[in-house]
Amino acid sequence: MKEVMGDDFVATETKYKTLHDVEHGYVLVNTPEKETVLLSKLNSCTYFVFDTETGSTEFGSALEIHSLELVGISFAFAVGEAFYLPVPEDIELADKLLHPYKIFFENPDILKIGHNLKFDINVMRRYGISVNGKMFDTIIAHYLYDSNSLHGLKELSKSMLGYQQIEIQDLIGAGKHQMSMRDVEPIEAAVYANEDADQTLQLHEKLTPLLKKRNLEQLFANIEIPLIKVLADMEYEGIKVDAEILYYMEEEARTELDLLQGKIFEAAGTDFTINSNIDLAAVLFEELGLEPILKTKTGANSVSKKVLKKLEREHPIIPLLLKYKSALSVVDNFLSKLPMNIHPVTERVHTNFKQDRVVTGRLSSANPNLQNIPKQDEGFGKQIRKAFVARDENHVIVSADYSQIELRVIAHYSKDPVMIEAFKNDEDIHQATAAKIFKVAGTEVTSHQRKIAKTINFGLNYLMSAKTLAERISDATGETIEVSDAQGYMDRYFAEFKGVEAYQEEAYYLATIHGYSTTLFGRRRYLPDIDSPFKFKRMSSKRLAVNTPIQGSSADIIKIAMVELHKELSLTFKTKMVLQIHDELVFDVPKDELDRVIPIIKRVMEGAVQLDVPLKVEINHGENWLEAH
């Protein structure tokens, strides 16, 4: 039976309940008597909600862990009741005030409930308090329940509880007139913070049975919740970035850009503004007479990267433009910006890992976004990793990368005997694929054939069309290939790898029955257009139905490995896990731990789950991420 997404949510209304419509007892803890009541409740509770309010400092914003100051903490134990404890600015007074609360935060038997607990955990850490034990994060719970929606507290209050919360702008203002939370009147701060805690408790009560209803409890409790503290530690630790290397690279890149600009003008026969789409379109399609391929929404001729790639062999200017745009992107997005992300106090970069943004379960990162660092060497992209360095001369960077994890998951799902045998024998899967498609012995496969097979493996497993496959093979080999030839490769591939095609059909069928696809660990992605009357929507949903179990299971596997590695390494080692990028984990390792730590990383990552084929991890180390990558 197909399940409809959103069947447990309140109907959207134009008018929501507010604080004026509900009974509530919100307490500002500003006397010894009130604090005694709060401590008494904490002493007798089995769970509590907590939420921190923070302010900015001279070092940065109220959201930067190594800059902020704690302004207050709200607690909730029952619906409609909450306590707000203001925290003084003076650090000694703050420590003295918080000391009696330390035992409750660190008690492993008390369930801690919050919304975006990762942030609150690190705020408390700044004040010497470790948040331990069982946890329930409403932002993660809702993300698992409905990965396609927004998960902010204010949005969830509306959608799930029919309630309109006080907006932060109403309290501190916005823009240049925005003030710090420290400057808000304590009674007003108390109402705002206590409402947050109260609403979080109500969301906990709402979401708990919903997770159970959709069999998401194990995924939530065993993978996502333990991962919170792992990511909190990684964010707090950060990674050292050498700004001087970035400055030097930027100078080199800008010199290269100047040279490329000159070559582009020479090829065009005129000077023009390369970064102006209007000017570039005029040069390509009017001055040089190239045939337009696509139109923008406004009806102009498109000069997107996709269009330029298709025109790459049509004129010598196109490869120069692609190289220029790639280099400029690296300069603008990384070389000139990364130094600004180095924190003035820690002298490290502290990216913010997001658990709730990618529907497949993959982590994303922000401030800075490190997931977009190019893998290729184009435009200085891969060289950026050289600036990510070990903390000192007594440490090294270790990179541990899952080898072809998605193809291994496909082999597991499809039970395809050819793929399974290749992986079990530790064969080169692309070479094995080429041998089957081109009907040659594995030792006779050429590099050209292997490139084609690699493109097929990473294309047809995700329902790529013959037309797109032809374009990708042309890009990979540098030779034009007809769509009919690509179709021939597709036919031969599925004739040899029958299990893959069978898996694709089964994944699509199950999605049409249930309305969602699932990973090996129960993560769901709802597909509302799976039976749409529009073919393009159905086909898009079919691709998602096939892709999600593969990509989502791969994401789950690396999360399991992160949790287990954090647990094992933190017991006896000083080694720190500092980055997670795609299928790769990066560690800052003391040199005297290297020989002991690398075998542990390999064992834990390769043993994270048991599939029908073995997982394989490639590990290297060096003074910087590039050497280790």
The low-confidence parts are: none
Give the class-level CATH name of the domain at 19-237.
Alpha Beta
The CATH level-2 architecture of the domain at 19-237 is identified as 2-Layer Sandwich
The percent range for helix content is 40-55%
| Major β-sheet annotation | 6 strands, mixed
Number of strands: 17
Strand order of the largest sheet: 1-4-3-2-5-6
**What radius of gyration results from the CA coordinates?**
27 Å
N-to-C span: 46 Å
- What is the typical, i.e. mean, pLDDT? 93
| Inertia-based shape | globular
**SS summary, helix count:** 23
Strand content: 5-15%
Structural class, by secondary structure, is: alpha+beta
Fold-level CATH name of the domain at 19-237: Nucleotidyltransferase, domain 5
Brief summary of the model shown:
This protein has 629 residues and is of the alpha+beta class. Helix content is 48%, strand content 13%. The protein has helices at 32-44, 91-98, 102-105, 117-126, 138-145, 153-161, 168-172, 186-213, 217-237, 243-268, 277-287, 305-310, 317-335, 405-414, 417-424, 429-438, 447-457, 466-477, 483-496, 498-514, 535-572, 594-606, 625-628, and strands spanning 25-28, 47-55, 69-78, 81-86, 111-114, 135-137, 239-241, 348-349, 352-354, 364-366, 388-389, 395-402, 516-518, 524-526, 576-581, 584-590, 617-622.
